[in-house]
């Protein structure tokens, strides 16, 4: 609205930023805990199937729509038809809430970097009834603010260039170390060998859908925003394949690391969300140089998380800029302020105040309602609107740009019928079974 739109400096910068967005706490925290609670190897099969079919297709669509309209998700859907504005607003709200609790976990992680140095014996239970989580939440909000206020190429692109490389440099040696620990083979078997009876259970597929979208940052409008900062006409199919491949490989390696550690220390894999915060520190405390490894581990998580959180912020910020006409500086300030206000509820649920909804900590409630259900609904709505109401030919031509692979016309029908139905059915089945 009147201001010159920001753009990525280079295509590599764009791909790294999207990789940075995709590779996050989801890969190192959420993925292993879901594998652990969903029967180990049984989760991997649906997960990889979804990533490489639904995930890839949706990623291409989101990036293409953003690049085509050069505006935020609200702007894009409004341009398709005015009456779809609400759908864009819905996605922005869901993403906004996810951002607020994502920062809470990021705060826990930042705290743990220091706890592992100064107070390694402090367990998660003692930590979560202190006010550390709340203080750390504020610190993380501040760090994000400092990055995003520098803009797309000056802030987000730069932090990702460093972050992604650093992440690989920490993850790979840690994994090699873990895999060579005695007893790690049982963990690797649990992780890789599917329990065939469980493979077709709907809750596992629903969890895999949720995780695939969460991990690839799909359904949040983030990729629409990142696509809208693209000037180049490079191949989106190639870029998306690279991002999906990278994200899958990192999650896979992180799983190898976590399950090797867990099993070689005789720990149970199905401990849910607290896996990384309760179990890992107790393992590190038993290892030689455990303190160093622990700090590296939580630093790894923190770097992965910060490159993702800056992308989440971009959704409400770009909506404020493009749809409300705010300047970036003001939009950044307003969004950061609002995210803090909402996030504080999740932060307080793991503090002496123990804020809860129907007995469930607010944080867990938000992750289920928004992180799993909200986001899948938002993805269904997005894909339905784009595939039914956007001009098919221009959409396909746009996706085709710069790509040597011929995009099959089928993609549109896949997006119209298969994508939304499959997502809806698995979600409904899993709710019924709950
Ligand atoms: N993909 C991130 C992760 O795996 O941790 C989470 C995420 C980041 C989701 C950004 C959505 C998003 F827009």
From TrEMBL:
One of its GO terms (molecular function) is symporter activity. The keyword Membrane applies. It is found in: Membrane. One of its GO terms (cellular component) is membrane. Keywords: Membrane, Symport, Transmembrane, Transmembrane helix, Transport. Pfam families: SNF. The chain crosses the membrane at residues 12-31, 43-65, 86-117, 129-147, 159-184, 204-230, 242-263, 283-310, 331-350, 370-390, 411-432. It comes from the Archaea. The keyword Transmembrane helix applies. It is a multi-pass membrane protein. PROSITE patterns: NA_NEUROTRAN_SYMP_1, NA_NEUROTRAN_SYMP_3. Belongs to the sodium:neurotransmitter symporter (SNF) (TC 2.A.22) family. PANTHER family: TRANSPORTER. This is Transporter.
